[in-house]
Amino acid sequence: MAGFFSGCARAPLSTVLMVSEMTGGYSLLLPTLWVSTLTFLLGRRWTLYIKQVPTRLDSPAHRGDFFVDVLEGIKVENVFKRAPSLKLIHEGTTLDDIVHALAESIQRYFPVVDAQGKLVGIFSEEDVRGYLYDDTIWHIANARDVMNGKVVTVTPNDDLNTALGKFTATNVDELPVVSASDQQHLIGIITRKDVIAAYNLRRLEHEKLRRAAGNFRRQSEQA
């Protein structure tokens, strides 16, 4: 049994230990090691793992793990957009002004701030759409009526894996980025597209390194 699996799996030492533990036949350890070594040397042309890929990056089974690993190595601070490029809405802004602001902006999500500039909520253009057919309340309702006060945020020190988890949990496309020391101090926003773009860029870098390593290995073997 040890000899057969050693030749197929290309792992003689691990096979000897595994079979000895399974059978309790430690008295046959020396002949088992001898047989496993022979089958390992004589069976080089055959292997059980004919579909084995060179690296985890090439393996569909580990692709999800690699995705997480890559995102864990990138911080939010490396990809998010700073606050000066965002249009902020004061909490007292009327719905009429909000509707006009949406028409003049390409933003999809609008952070809501108080008089001190602290983040108190956020709303999307979809949140406002339900009020468009009743213009009688445009001058009555304000930002607090349409915003979501339970804001899910990330900090610059969070990795993109954390951000992706929050995107998935909340089913939104943008998350406010706040200071790690003050959860109401808005400093920018990160989008799901930012996370995907960062992943694709890092994966491309890893692919180039993998190819370079493969070329170097082939050149070494030829030499």
SSE string, helices as H and strands as E:
HHHHEEHEEHHHEEH
Please estimate the helix content: 40-55%
Strand arrangement across the biggest beta sheet: 1-6-5
End-to-end CA span: 38 Å
The CATH superfamily title of one domain:
CBS-domain
CATH architect. name of one domain: Roll
Overall pLDDT confidence: 81
* Sheet with the most strands, sense and barrel status: 3 strands, antiparallel
β-strand amount = 5-15%
Globular, elongated, flat, extended or rod-shaped: what is the shape?
elongated
Radius of gyration: 29 Å
How many helical elements? 9
Structural class: mainly alpha
Q: Indicate the CATH topology of one domain.
A: CBS-domain
Q: What is the top-level CATH class of one domain?
A: Alpha Beta
Total number of beta strands = 6
Spans where pLDDT lies below 50 across 5 or more residues: none
How is this fold's topology laid out?
Layout: H1 2-9, H2 12-23, H3 29-42, H4 63-72, E1 81-82, E2 89-90, H5 95-104, E3 109-113, E4 119-124, H6 125-129, H7 143-146, H8 160-170, E5 174-178, E6 186-191, H9 192-222
